[in-house]
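Structure first, sequence second, as always.
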């Protein structure tokens, strides 16, 4: 039987534990991404911020586990994992698919547990109320790889390594399916502030679709636009890290 501590370690990576931190920053990966994407974030945060990078099932050391079928399933499974960490203020940060997941986790924390995150920072993702008809997850393997090249979020050396990329494709496809089949269910607005970040040349979300996140909170809303595409944050890492540190410090 898996103990609570072992289950917690499946989901949460603390690359630089800061037990005396005043706030926790929860980082949620993009489709096909893993917790290691946020290692630089963890390394760069001040001592006052404890970074929790989330590892989804179906990849890296969780490769033998089945992938989640939907954003809702991921949120249902992840929310109770985060509850013990809510002894400090939580700032949720999600990129792309991770932004939608962050929204659903924030909803569950508020609705079911009375925990209001100090901020939800969403990156490179349209608002839940702005659906698109997308079907990348239905493409063949070559089509899926081409989409990843288009978004420039995966090292080209990895994409050129046929054996490595084929091993990762099931998780990537599952994540795309979860993101693309997500259906927003209307409900109460969040009580936490929302910050929406977007690249001005992102093929997956327009500036207006990102601004529409303002519809989903009764708290203050911020909207910041950066030059770049879907992975603008790798180019503007310093500014994004500064913003996350600022939000966590405010908490």
């Amino acid at each position: 039987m898996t103990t609570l501590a072992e289950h917690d370690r499946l989901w949460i990576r603390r690359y630089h534990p800061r037990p005396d931190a005043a706030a926790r920053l929860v980082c949620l990966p993009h489709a096909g991404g893993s917790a290691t994407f946020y290692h630089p974030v963890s390394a760069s945060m001040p001592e006052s911020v404890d970074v929790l990078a989330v590892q989804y099932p179906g990849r890296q050391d969780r490769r033998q586990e089945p992938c989640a079928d939907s954003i809702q399933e991921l949120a249902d499974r992840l929310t109770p994992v985060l509850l013990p960490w809510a002894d400090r203020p939580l700032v949720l940060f999600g990129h792309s698919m991770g932004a939608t997941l962050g929204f659903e986790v924030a909803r569950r924390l508020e609705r079911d547990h009375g925990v209001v995150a100090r901020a939800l920072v969403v990156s490179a993702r349209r608002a839940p109320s702005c659906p698109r008809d997308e079907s990348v997850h239905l493409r063949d393997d070559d089509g899926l790889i081409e989409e990843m090249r288009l978004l420039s979020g995966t090292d080209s050396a990895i994409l050129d390594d046929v054996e490595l990329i084929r091993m990762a494709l099931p998780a990537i496809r599952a994540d795309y399916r979860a993101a693309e089949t997500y259906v927003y269910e209307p409900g109460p607005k969040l009580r936490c502030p929302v910050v929406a970040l977007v690249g001005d040349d992102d093929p997956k979300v327009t500036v207006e679709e990102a601004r529409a996140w303002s519809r989903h909170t009764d708290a203050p809303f911020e909207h910041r636009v950066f030059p770049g595409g879907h992975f603008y944050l790798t180019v503007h890492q310093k500014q994004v890290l500064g913003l996350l540190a600022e939000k966590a410090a405010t908490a």
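Margin note: The two ends are 37 Å apart (CA to CA).
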